[in-house]
Amino acid sequence: MTVPAGREARTVFATARRVLGQLAHDLGTVALILALPCVLLILLRWVFHGVPGSFARAGPQLFGVFPLIVMYLVASVATLRERVNGTLDRLLCLPMRRLDLLLGYVVAFGVLAVAQAGIATGLAVGVLGMRVAGPVWLLLLAAALDALLGLALGLLTSAFARTEFQAVQYLPAVILPQFLLCGLFVPPEAMDGTLRLLADTMPMTYAVQATSRIATEPGITSALLADLAAVTAFLLACLILGAFTLRRRTP
Amino acid sequence: MFVPLDALSENQQPVVRVDQMTVVRRRVVLRNISFAVPMGSVTGLLGPSGSGKTTLIRTIVGLQARASGTVEVLGLPAGSASLRREVGYVSQAPSVYPDVTVRENLRYFASVLGLRGEPRAQAVRRVLSDVDLTALAGTVVGRLSGGERSRVSLAVAFLGTPRLLVLDEPTVGLDPVLRRDLWALFGRQARHGTTVLVSSHVMDEADRCDRLLLLREGRLLAAGDRGELLARTGTVRAEDAFLRLVEAPHSLEAG
Lengths: 251, 255
Description:
The complex is a heterodimer of chains A (251) and B (255).
Chain A: H1 5-24, H2 27-47, H3 54-63, H4 66-85, H5 87-93, H6 98-127, H7 136-158, H8 164-181, H9 193-200, H10 203-216, H11 222-245
Chain B: E1 3-4, E2 16-25, E3 27-37, E4 42-46, H1 53-60, E5 67-73, E6 76-77, E7 87-90, H2 102-112, H3 117-130, H4 146-158, E8 164-168, H5 176-191, E9 195-200, E10 211-216, E11 219-225, H6 226-233, H7 238-247
Parallel strand pairs in B: 1-11, 4-9, 4-10, 7-8, 8-9
Antiparallel strand pairs in B: 2-3, 2-5, 5-6, 10-11
Helix pairs in contact in B: 2-3, 3-4, 6-7
């Protein structure tokens, strides 16, 4: 049986609209999503106040970290709620593809991710004096992609969580190893072979490399494009894997 | 012990056909269940709490793994993708979004069913009136009472035009007037050709059904026409029939 392609797109947008509707009734969460990366950047600038050159290095790197973490948490809680509410079971009993549900989340939170990236970029470049050698719009794009990667990681891992406790436990399990190996503390080039290999399998490494490159290298280099492509590939892989792990049947 | 009250005639295809179905989840939850639900009936799935009603229902809508035996809906294996448009399912917990309004919930689920524009608006108005929630359409679901929430959940199942409605304890905790109205609504749905399978642990509600499935401790005590079941057990109420089947099953097996 073939279904017209427009139907799926409408389901995606209906889902995005519903998620945005939920957010509209919960402006506190929206404010947190938008403000949190900014507050963290201000704090970071303050921490590095007496250490010249540190913010210039770490600022862009953390640009690849904060949006990812914030969106990761939002996404894992949102999907878990969908499961606990019973609405996930209901949707899976309706004529809806699992991937379309996740894409609906991506569209809705994508809107939020772009807004978040815009505000954070404006603050970092305009107010906190973060120097960006490459085009600023590219930093904005990288931050938005990064947020969406966090969203996809959250959607994927929450499929494995059975309770709120488990979902929260996945944050240190999934995010902290990436945080340690992403190049923030030691550049990947300086890591030993195995560690380097491990770092290379982690999506956050590419997100941090991309934002660092935009800050230090003028113009669009092929290395930068490779990093952005890697982030996008991880994003898509997480979504497709996430759609497969949304289980319809319970034991 | 199982008393088959009537067999469906050969040419009538049942909407639900369950044959020798067993579900084991650490313990045996359902044991060797066989029954059929004919088209256009209101069938009550009655049994005490813990008897396996919800598991049986989840098996029929295809949400329950590890079910051995046959479970067919409209001639297809339960849970087949093409059944998703044909089967409306309402779980026991209200499965709607608590943080948006009643209307926003209904609009969303209608969109997922492929409705849009005026047909969608019409469907939303129709189901709001079916469950008597028109006045609360603009209220955020989280602010509603438990009974009102389960009516929103019920309304979602009426949005499409399913051929089978599977409702897990939809009338628990509702006002008696509303309960009566909902049973009247189920009856209307059945007369319009939608087969309705409703579970309940309140035996009184059995008297509102055309057909009954009596479940106890994972075994089906009886399945069939309510009138015949009462006649066979020499009782006038489903509750008494249930007791008779539990207490003196062997006296009923002959004949």
